[in-house]
Amino acid sequence: MHEILLLAMQAGKLKEIKREGWLRVGIEQPENVACHSYRVAFLAMLIGDALNLDTEKMMKMALLHDLAEAMIGDITPHDMARKEKMEKEEVVMKKMLQGFEEYYRIWKEFVEGKIKEAEIMQQIDKLEMILQAHEYAAKYGKEKLKEFLEEEENIKHPFLVSLLEEMKSSFSSS
User: Fold this and answer.
1) Alpha-carbon dihedral of residues 15, 17, 20, 22, nearest 10 degrees?
2) d(CA 108, CA 119)
3) Which candidate, 15, 12, 44, places its Cα nearest to that of 4?
4) What is the pLDDT of residues 142-169, one digit of tens each?
5) How many Cα neighbours within 13 Å face the side chain of 60?
6) Residue 102 domain boundaries
7) Structure pTM?
C-alpha cells in the first residue's frame, strides 16, 4: 500500500480516540483527538494569517502535533511525565513519518518550540483546549473544568491573550 494511504489511515485513527482529560473529569461524549486537531489547524490558519507568520508551516504543525496519539493514545500529564511521553512520541513519529522527513522535521520544530511559529502553536494548542473547556463549562459547570481553565496562565503572546480575554468575556456574559 502507498505510504500516503498508510499515513492517512493511521491519522484516521485519531477520530476514534476520545480526549482523555475530558473523560477523566466526566464529560459525556467528549471530543476526539481529530476534532481537537482540526480546530487547532483552523486557529493556526486564522492566527498565522492575522500575525503574518508562516501559516502553512503552522497548519502542518497543527495537523502533526497529536499524530503519535494514533499509536499510543491520548496521554495526559496525569498518566505519565512529560519527558517519558515525549520519548514515546519521538519513537512513534520516527516510524510513522519514515519517508516524510519534512513532516518529521516540522513536528520536531513544534515540540522544541524554538521558532516563532512553533512557540505560538504550542500556545494555540492550549488556547483551543481552553476554548473547549469553556464550551463544556457552559454545559457541565466551571468547577468540573477548573484545571483546564487554569491553563490560561500559559497563554503569553499578546494577540492570543487578547483573544483569551474576549473568550472569557463572551462566556461569562452568556
Assistant:
1) 40
2) 12
3) 12
4) 999 999 999 999 999 999 999 999 999 9
5) 16
6) 3-173
7) 0.95
